[in-house]
Amino acid sequence: MKNAIVIIVFLFVMKPILPVLEYVLNYDYIVKELCENKAKPETNCNGKCHLMKELAKASENNTPVSSEKKVSHSEFEVLFIQKLASLEVVTLNFPIQKAINTKYSDGYFYENSTTTFHPPTV
Hints:
The protein has a domain at 2-64. The mean pLDDT is 77. It is mainly alpha-helical and 122 residues long. The longest helix is centred in the middle third of the chain and has 15 residues, at 48-62. The chain starts with a helix and ends in a 60-residue tail after the last helix. It has 4 helices and no strands. The protein is elongated, with a radius of gyration of 46 Å.
């Protein structure tokens, strides 16, 4: 079962390459019999015209049918709007402290603040 699935997937992947493979395998026959430009050797067609036709056929078969029918879909987004209740602004009254502490205390101790600094001598 697994091998069958692998083979089917392989064939689907290789389907666009099959005309090129056929061209390579039957190159001599295509150049001598199927080439449309046999009378014009200066074009150096060598059967490429037949290959292009086969590739065009393969690409036509690959186009989905749904691409021909364009269906327009429209979407509507339904919105529900509800009016908000009126907002009440509440003012909060905090007691204001009128007395400010004016006593400033500098708790930092300056050690040897009376002496002058002398750099070390060498």
